[in-house]
Amino acid sequence: MIGYGIMTGVKRGSFFRTAAVVVAALTASACGSSSSDAPAPPATSSSTPPPIVEPTTPPGTSLTVGQRAVVSYSDGIDEGLLAITVTAIEQADQNEFRTTFGDRAQGLTPYCIRYTVENLTGIDFGTKVGPKLEALVGDGETTGTFITGDIPSCAPRLSPGDFDHPGARYENADLDATSPDAPVVAARYDGNDYDGSPLVWRMP
């Protein structure tokens, strides 16, 4: 409500012109509050990177530790492209091995295969058992040792929960053991399309 008052020094015609200006200003203000002038919602954009498309590494390929292989991987539910890079094949901690396995460790030398896994296509492989690798001895055969368990310095893990977008990666490790007269010289992946014709990473 506009209060009443006395204005001095203003002519009548000027007062009406002033009032008209005030009314026009109020009208313009009311029109300006329409929804057409409301700020537009911010544009949204996806931060998910696009899938990484690469040819798969042919079955039977021989690689050197440090080289990357691209495989078509299925966990029985979903399928997508993963990249596997074996980063090390090394003797594991003998004391940890003996402490963990006791008498069963007698006469065995433990080895640890370390590798990275990268999600290329962005399929949700989070919190799952990923690709597993096996150690090979000099004649190209597996060690023949079946290990259930791990040691602190060489423990396999599930993929992290956010392993669900292109470029996501994690490090993993697999434990194996062999007799001292048959040292481990390589590691293999024989899952999915590579069953019977595995990928083999050899120590340089």
Task: Explain what this protein looks like in three dimensions.
- Helix content is 14%, strand content 28%.
- The chain starts with 11 loop residues before the first helix and ends with a strand.
- The N terminus is likely disordered.
- It is globular and about 50 Å long.
- With 204 residues, the protein is of the alpha+beta class.
- It has a domain of 141 residues: Immunoglobulin-like.
- The chain has a four-stranded mixed beta sheet, with no helix packed on it. A four-stranded antiparallel beta sheet has the order 2-3-4-6, with no helix packed on it.
Compile the SSE list and pairings.
Layout: H1 12-32, E1 62-64, E2 68-74, E3 79-91, H2 94-101, E4 109-119, E5 134-137, E6 169-178, E7 184-189, E8 199-202
Output the keywords:
4-stranded mixed β-sheet; 204 residues; alpha+beta; Immunoglobulin-like
The name CATH uses for the topology of the domain at 62-202 is Immunoglobulin-like
Q: Indicate the CATH class of the domain at 62-202.
A: Mainly Beta
Beta content:
25-35%
**Sheet with the most strands: spatial strand order:** 1-8-7-5
User: Rough shape?
Assistant: globular
- Give the low-pLDDT segments: 1-36
Instruction: Give the name of the CATH architecture of the domain at 62-202.
Output: Sandwich
- Tell me the structural class: alpha+beta
